[in-house]
Amino acid sequence: AGRKGGHKGRARQYTSPEEIDAQLQAEKQKAREEEEQEEGGEGATGEPRKEKKSLDSDESEEDDEDYQQKRKGVEGLIDIENPNRVLQTTKKVTQLDLDGPKELSRREREEIEKQKAKERYMKMHLAGKTEQAKADLARLAIIRKQREEAARKKEEERKAKDEATTAGKRMQSLSLNK
């Protein structure tokens, strides 16, 4: 009535074909050793032990290979050749090439191009070669002319006032003297 089996295959463990082969070889070796020990008696017991030691070292090497070959999920069962898969290689500090040309990202390249364009525009603008600079210079010239005219008028008005005041003072001084 309840669930069949475990929760989402938690308890399932699959052994890879390499591991099965290693186990079978180990069992065959043990069977051979036992036969040799039974047949050889005491004199031959030294040699199988040596073989056993070499067998242990062989097994540990196989274990290391299995450990290196173990991969996540189904990768261990299926040989995957994905041309798009990039294996990350860790580089040592001595191998890093700091002097070589750095690959810039698209954003960095665009940012640099933008700055260069801005600098070019400012140089042209200061030299007065852009349309906006020409318009600005024309506007400035008009304003200068207007200011010069205004300054000239003020100067004339001031002179007129000065003459009027000096003439008025002369009149007063003349009337006081009488």
TrEMBL record:
**Official protein name in the record:** 28 kDa heat- and acid-stable phosphoprotein
Q: Which residues form the signal peptide?
A: none
Organism domain of life: Eukaryota
Region ranges (Disordered): 1-113, 148-178
User: Which species does this protein come from?
Assistant: Alligator sinensis
Listed InterPro entries: Casein_kinase_sb_PP28, HAP28
Bias-annotated ranges (Basic and acidic residues): 47-56, 99-113, 148-164
Q: Where do Basic residues bias regions lie?
A: 1-11
Q: Where is the Casein kinase substrate phosphoprotein PP28 domain?
A: 82-159
Compositional bias ranges of the Acidic residues kind: 57-66
The coding gene here is PDAP1
